Amino acid sequence: MIEDSYRHRGMRRALIKTLEEKGISDPKVLNALKKVPRHVFFDKAFLEHAYQDKAFPIGEGQTISQPYTVAVQTELAQIVPGDKVLEIGTGSGYQCCILLELEAKVYTIEYLRPLHLQAKNLLTSMGYQAHFIHGDGSKGFSAYAPYDKIIVTAGAPSVPEILIEQLAAPGKLVIPVGGSERQEMVTIQKLPGNKIIKKEHNYFSFVPLLGEQGWRK
Ligand code: SAH
Predict the structure, then answer these.
(1) Given Cys at both, which of 1, 64, 77, 155 links 92, Cβ 3.0 to 4.6 Å?
(2) Hey, which of 74, 88, 151, 204 would you mutate to test ligand 1's pocket, going by the most ligand atoms within 8 Å of its Cβ?
């Protein structure tokens, strides 16, 4: 049974306020963040950390992304209900829940099997429904392409061309690109007629994208 008490909800409201102060303004994104109990992704002993605006270890050397980062990526993706979204890097499954609250149809892929299984079990027990895939998402996932939106939640050395190919037109890719220390958030919009618009945003710090188009084969 998932416990979401008055205290948890209070802590969540405070976190949302912090995100608003940091510049997150899309009411739909804020509302989704308000709905998803982030403490469920933490061991009880670390409750205080669940509603701080920071990343946190989830095992296997990976992290649950910072709420601000999740909010920025989700805002940039401009999710509308019914969007078919590929999330690369399931990790804890938190970002996936946010996408589901925005009524997206989510395909989420994770490279590390223990994390894939953990997220699949947890989200299912929470009543969330997504397609959980175990594999190398640096190549996207061609079986269900094209996607209206692709969100990469690990830092890539460059933008894999194959991800642009798997975008619908119109469609949008949100991907952090750069070295191991910091990465620039990049958006690639594909317009009808396959015209591409690339934009660079702020800097963030992600764990590395692994796999064929990532840092480690
Ligand atoms: N979206 C996640 C963030 C997790 S951190 C969340 O909300 O918690 C990034 C995740 O990307 C890690 O779990 C890591 O194992 C995974 N990852 C790294 N390279 C990958 C690849 N090539 N394909 C799929 N997942 C990958």
Answers:
(1) 64
(2) 88
In a domain, 63, yes or no: yes
Segment 146-185, tens digit of pLDDT? 999 999 999 999 999 999 999 999 999 999 999 988 999 9
Cα 146 to Cα 4: distance, rounded to the nearest angstrom:
36
Q: How far apart are CA 132 and CA 93, in angstroms?
A: 10
Catalytic residue, from 25, 65, 142, 205: name it: 65
* pLDDT, tens only, 174-204: 999 999 889 999 999 999 999 999 999 999 9
User: Cβ(119)–Cβ(93) under 8 Å?
Assistant: yes
Q: Partners of 112 in the beta sheet?
A: none
Number of compact structural domains in the chain: 1
What is the number of the ligand 1 atom nearest to the C-alpha of 60?
15
Q: How confident is the model at residue 217 (pLDDT cuts 50, 70, 90)?
A: low
Per-residue confidence (pLDDT) for residue 1, from 0 to 100:
63
Q: Domain limits at 65?
A: 6-204
Is 215 among the domain residues?
no
Q: Which protein residues touch ligand 1 with a CB less than 6 Å away?
A: 62-65, 88-89, 91-92, 94-95, 109-112, 115, 136-138, 153-154, 207, 209-211, 214
**Separation of CA 62 from chain center:** 13
